[in-house]
Amino acid sequence: MRRLHLIEIEDQDWCPHSLRDAATDYLQCFFSATRIYEPIIPILGGVLRRAGSRGIVDLCSGAAGPWLWLQPALAESGVGVPVCLTDKYPNLEGFRRANRLTDRAIGYHPQPVDPMQVPASLPGFRTMFSAFHHFRPGQARAVLADAVRSGEGIAVFEATQRRPLAILFALLAPLGVFLVTPFIRPFRWSRLFWTYVVPLAPLVTLFDGVVSCLRTYSLQDMRDLADSLGSSGYQWEMGTVKGGRMPIPITYLVGAPVAKAA
């Protein structure tokens, strides 16, 4: 199954802000409930230790992604670093909630951030969860190249795949949206509107979920992107690991400057 770069509705400027927030709020709830990224803790913790990183800049954070449980879990493993959430379309209510619930261990940047041109005012090891597939190959390479150029480490983790089983789970997503929406926090009337009155949130989650699978970079794709940078001063690792409570493995690409990764 070849990678198809179709559009995702959440990526579009014309997507209503409240609808985008409803979709990212659901994803944050899903990540917390399934802890699908739990197996990457040793991988991320290991590279953070080797790189001597004192902070994380998370790119394309949505409504905080897996960080509400991942930041404390990293701290318990001995890597207690602060996290700064960023996004091109910041979900500020979700960011503020994460900041409050973690006693400010999770911070956020309120202005839009382009992962291909991260401001110098945001130093730190870069992470990206379930978002790398949003970028075309040239853009994905630019995301990695910007980290290399800035001398920062970067870790990309994807919980989707171009496989029938992953697409099947994406097809079930609307049911999850209908069932859990009343329990998602922070509470938003707009989320109820987009789910039960005008049910676009389930449809957007379905469409974007299937497209995400079709857009996901394979392990070989990630290897080719890293190799195309031609940087002898950067050390790359990549692979797959079983995805927590889900049967779909996580694909990862991790890199850091050799001097820091040693």
In short:
This protein has 262 residues and is α/β, with parallel strands linked by helices.
Primary descriptors:
262 residues, Rossmann fold, 14% strand, seven-stranded mixed beta sheet, alpha/beta, single chain, 11 helices
Polypeptide structure, described:
The structure is a single chain. With 262 residues, this protein is of the alpha/beta class. The chain has one domain (17-261): 3-Layer(aba) Sandwich (Rossmann fold), CATH 3.40.50.150. It has helices at residues 17-34, 41-51, 67-76, 92-101, 137-150, 164-171, 173-180, 189-197, 200-215, 219-228, 258-261; strands spanning 56-59, 83-85, 106-108, 125-129, 154-158, 234-241, 250-257. The chain has a seven-stranded mixed sheet, sandwiched between helices. Strand 4 (125-129), helix 5 and strand 5 (154-158) form a beta-alpha-beta unit. The chain is globular, with a radius of gyration of 17 Å.
Question: Topology of this protein?
Answer:
Layout: H1 17-34, H2 41-51, E1 56-59, H3 67-76, E2 83-85, H4 92-101, E3 106-108, E4 125-129, H5 137-150, E5 154-158, H6 164-171, H7 173-180, H8 189-197, H9 200-215, H10 219-228, E6 234-241, E7 250-257, H11 258-261
Parallel strand pairs: 1-2, 1-4, 2-3, 4-5
Antiparallel strand pairs: 5-7, 6-7
Helix pairs in contact: 1-9, 6-9, 7-9
